Model the fold of this input.
Amino acid sequence: MSQKPSVKEIEQNLIDDFGLMDNWEEKYEYLIELGQDLPEMDAALKTEDRLVKGCQSSVWFDIHCQDHKVVFSADSDSLIVKGMVAILNEMLNGQPAEEVLKADLTFFETLGLWHHISSQRSNGLTAMLAHLKLAAADCLK
Amino acid sequence: MSQKPSVKEIEQNLIDDFGLMDNWEEKYEYLIELGQDLPEMDAALKTEDRLVKGCQSSVWFDIHCQDHKVVFSADSDSLIVKGMVAILNEMLNGQPAEEVLKADLTFFETLGLWHHISSQRSNGLTAMLAHLKLAAADCLK
Amino acid sequence: MSKDILSARNDFPILSSQVNGFPLVYLDNAATTQKPQSVIDAISNYYSTINSNIHRGNHTLAIQATDAYENVRKKVATYINAASPDEIIFTRGTTESINLVAYSFGEAFVKPGDEIIVTQLEHHSNYVPWQLMCQRKGASFKVVPFDENGDLDLEILADMLSEKTRLLAVNHISNSLGTINPVEKIVRMAHAAGVPVLVDAAQAVQHTLHDVQVIDADFYVFSGHKMFAPMGIGVLYAKEKWLEALPPFISGGNMIDQVTPEKITFNVLPFKFEAGTSNVADVVGLGAALDYINSFDFQAIQAYEEDLLDFGEELLSTIPGLKIYGNPKRRSAILPFNIEGIQHFDLGILLDTKGIAVRTGQHCTQPIMDALRIPGTVRASLALYNTREDLEQLAHGIERIIRRIRS
Amino acid sequence: MSKDILSARNDFPILSSQVNGFPLVYLDNAATTQKPQSVIDAISNYYSTINSNIHRGNHTLAIQATDAYENVRKKVATYINAASPDEIIFTRGTTESINLVAYSFGEAFVKPGDEIIVTQLEHHSNYVPWQLMCQRKGASFKVVPFDENGDLDLEILADMLSEKTRLLAVNHISNSLGTINPVEKIVRMAHAAGVPVLVDAAQAVQHTLHDVQVIDADFYVFSGHKMFAPMGIGVLYAKEKWLEALPPFISGGNMIDQVTPEKITFNVLPFKFEAGTSNVADVVGLGAALDYINSFDFQAIQAYEEDLLDFGEELLSTIPGLKIYGNPKRRSAILPFNIEGIQHFDLGILLDTKGIAVRTGQHCTQPIMDALRIPGTVRASLALYNTREDLEQLAHGIERIIRRIRS
Ligand SMILES: Cc1ncc(COP(=O)(O)O)c(C=O)c1O
Ligand SMILES: Cc1ncc(COP(=O)(O)O)c(C=O)c1O
Done:
């Protein structure tokens, strides 16, 4: 089957992967590696209007709707945020809009990894997900 | 000798007297008794301009200069303040202006009794003494 | 299971201390309450384990301290039933909360000829800021009087409310007479006239109904230190629409989004109103105080305190020459009185010689004293840890003093 | 005998804790300092033994609490060599102190066309309040730039000072670059032009000269929490003539002499500026913090911290790709830097995984970041309890992160 695995399946894989790491340092290093493997975003797309507000670092998202699926490319000047972007990419890129709308952050809390970012009520992660959901909602209109 | 005892002598007597009391209650009761024995102030003298500012209770002072001596009558609607007035009366009424100018509050601190009043930097006791000293200074002009 | 109120006393270390050789009888709770060990420990633990500046840090202490702080914001929101934690602004106390509103509301909405209404029952902190704002803005300052019982005259209020009125500021409970004002009704009257209401809950939030949605207050303010929490922390609740509409008061770090010499944009709520380093330790202490209150059944607290007040009122009434001020429809936790021939000031000092702490004077309510034509009162005020014995001590102390002085 | 500085570490309980499995290396002191046990105990003891509302009470607790509070006022006056304790106003912190002056000074003395000068080195808290005041009053807001070393351009300041200038606000030490500004000279320049000066000493009072009479500051402000004292307390020093001349800022209880609906008169100094219930506990904590600092020889603290800074600067300089910002004539306790190819934000989080706490971002100094054209820095900031080992841990941590990421 060429279908992308479900969000839940991907989530579980990631939780398993991160579970292998002993400590925060390794987890962050793994996250950074994920980010380094993220497909490059076209530099021309890194424009002011594609910046996500509410992040401590710059994050650009370019989001489209294709066949009711949410398709995006993204980048950040922070290696760690780029790692988060990579996870969002793995989990949500190309998923049906309904799935994207259902996505939540409990997974990130499970990973624990995000305590640096998630404790701020208006943080980058929330902002990025909100962006994706907005696009997903548009996608269903 | 008809001369009034010196301020220091009166002070020592008072310290001795108050030293006989076992506890705060007795000290305040004694103080109130002293106040109750204070010669009445002429009601007509209890005017706005004779009110001492900075007291939690009303205190009136009427001060004169006679032969370079400070002579006053005073009253308060507080029994405790009236007791303090009585002590000031015993110590300073009729004393040479120079003596009044030298008077300080360490004595009141020794008595300990005054901690209720003396902890406030701008308290009634300071204000009353300041009044007497102002008059004493005038007296020497 | 809720805790037994009679056990509360043991939770407060200071209550087992001696004052002037006598066990402390603390009846000055309207001025400030004592703190349970859990609140004291919360502060110590905070400083010993997670102390950090918050919101802008990404190291673990900063995150833990931020979480602790923001959790208390949620706890406060729950306690007063705010629609959202974003409606909770931490301030230094009631006084600062009121000044914030008086200032920001004044800048945004008050013009010459407008009117602000307060009541004659207000604490200076809910009186003077409005008076000064009216002076600045050329507005009129209106005062609703209270009647011979110490109840607000709502007919006069009804007449005063007009299209010129910009805001009504009223306390829920008078710190001086203990009157419980019918704030729900007052808010309805004001809203019917299109007037927003600030409710000063400094004496209410720990004793009575504190549901901001039931009261429907536009602004609701209180101090931590009067509800078993540390000094130095207070709350401004405001409906989100108001917080969005008001300009900031204190400015500086944390409340800024972007700043250049030419232009400033502000942070989102609630941060727009929380400039400077937050008082995290005392917020954490406030959280512990709310936990403490929540460990009891609140209705049981209310019933206990009402019973205690009735007991005290009866007991004092039997003392010859003692006059209790006010006879409001409903009274809370406060007993204001005087003894014929003995100044409030003297009585306070003499009671203190027996370890009994009451407050004497004007209680920051000169307008009330002026209306009653008295220089001040003795005020005994209750908290949940007070007992009938405390009130008996007070009554005995007063009787003894009267005997001694009259003898 | 003064205490040995190397023993200081042991006085701070949090410094022996573990963060993420590693011993805490706390290098975020410019944001807030940790608290010695003596300060933590002072707060607990206060609440356990003498807690009371102050100034208006005449029972023993109220008197003891008042004495404790007023004694700290004297201690602060002595610490900064104020002419009188009446010149010490307790506030919530630097931010509130500055807002108080910006507001009250603005009301009293600033007219359309006037000018206020700040510098490009200021924290938002010493920038935005002046900017907003200028907007309110129709005054111009002028900013003295800093040069490529991070030193203020005093020639431009000299040109800016004119008969239109109403006030100059400048920090003694920049929280972002660590620049020690020549405040004595700056104050002389301003005074020669008849301009009063507010000195923001938030980063200075604990590290360097803090004699307000030597500096000759008109206003001098700082926060307790950056000098080992609790959060929630700060100081505004002002020359008495200014305090007499300025109208009050926060109004309410305690700052009133008389109030009727028609008229208000204010209390004497310093109470005119201290409305509402005072934060006695944290003031007592501030007193304990001053005692703590005074238990050392202050010159020894300065020498120790200078040595530590030099050590750190050298150590970091050896790391390839690491750039330290600014090279001011004199620097204090602050090391701002970035690593090529690694965002400040990432570095902060990665250091934290090893228990090393630094701050990252703009540090509430966007004007500095804009001038340097960078989004932010990593900032390691020192206090007297830091050691060479702390800085070695930092350097090792950075090197390890660079190796891992570049590999
Ligand atoms: C130089 C400077 N000024 C002002 C402030 C603001 O101090 P606070 O947040 O304690 O009010 C700070 C600290 O954050 C600072 O470093
Ligand atoms: C009814 C009322 N309002 C306002 C205040 C002022 O509160 P704070 O002094 O904590 O700011 C008090 C207490 O003093 C009060 O009782």
About this structure: The interface with chain C takes residues 56, 115-117, 119-122 of chain A (CB under 8 Å). Residues C 30, 93-95, 123, 125-126, 171, 175, 200, 202-203, 223, 225, 364; D 253, 276-277 surround pyridoxal-5'-phosphate (ligand 2) (CB under 6 Å).
